[in-house]
Write the structure tokens for this entry.
Amino acid sequence: MDTALTALAGVRHPIVQTGMGWVAGPRLVSAVAEAGALGILASATMSPDRLRAAVREVASRTDAPFGVNLRADAGDAGERVRIIIEEGVRVASFALAPTRELITRLKDAGVVVIPSVGARRHAEKVAAWGADAVVVQGGEGGGHTGEVATSVLLPQVVDAVDIPVVAAGGFHDGRGLIAALAYGAAGIAMGTRFLLTSDSTVPDAVKARYLAAAVTDVTVTTAVDGLPHRMLRTELVDALERSGRTTALVRAVRHAAAFRRLSGTGWVRMARDGLAMRRGRELTWSQVLLAATTPMLLKAAMVDGRTDTGVMASGQVAGVIADLPSCAELVDRVMAQAEAVRARLPA
């Protein structure tokens, strides 16, 4: 199934695995790449040295193209871009709109630039700056999300830009792929569906928690970092929503110290990143600290298996997923179903 996405990224199938912190590591990304889809390595939770090592590990596991996801507002974004270029990574994706300068630097080096956006105006901006394609996530998607459903946002963006659009938020099977193509997208991006595979390193007990969730167990909260964040409702989420400002600040400082030790990020850079996140948003300083250290809350669940002390970002599709196929099995299933659906459509 050739589309503008497969041509641009050099992959066999128009499917993207999103860059999920602590989840999209070398094992998952290489398995997705070997399955013929575009795997995206999550770098926000890695030090630059660890990022370079992870890129090399993926390259040692597969000859297929893959990508790296970056935080555009990180103080060391330029250093991470340099690593991507030096290591010959095919695709750079961004969780926030990158600057024109970063886009130009990557494109001049032959790297395909695919930012993720949640609004039409953001898609128009990065397209004008030279992005090669854009991932547009509707409100059904996991992690930081907006209020507009994919079925409304996707056609808006397709009509607004002249670059390939990848649809994200609510996709998990071949029916969704055909629906996205019908809207004018060049493919789909899935996060939660790839998290729930046998190739994912997320602990089995955490996967079981996802599989047990109903659609109504996936909520949107601002209590974690002051921004709308879609995740499974847990005891910790309930506690965060009940916490007063002092309790939230103490928790934020504790997580900030842990994140600093793990990532090697200095306090000055963390403060600078926090100021960048606070600019233009009405966030308290405890929310800024939590935003900077949300990776630690995710790590508690996604790496340590502590669902009582961690958070579990999740798309609404968690409520309709019931198994843990390998990435190869999942991609083959999605493509087979998509072809069957397309064959049944009226000519």
Observations:
- The chain has a mean pLDDT of 90.
- The chain is about 50% helix and 15% strand.
- The CA atoms of residues 78 and 134 lie 20 Å apart.
- The longest strand covers residues 112-117.
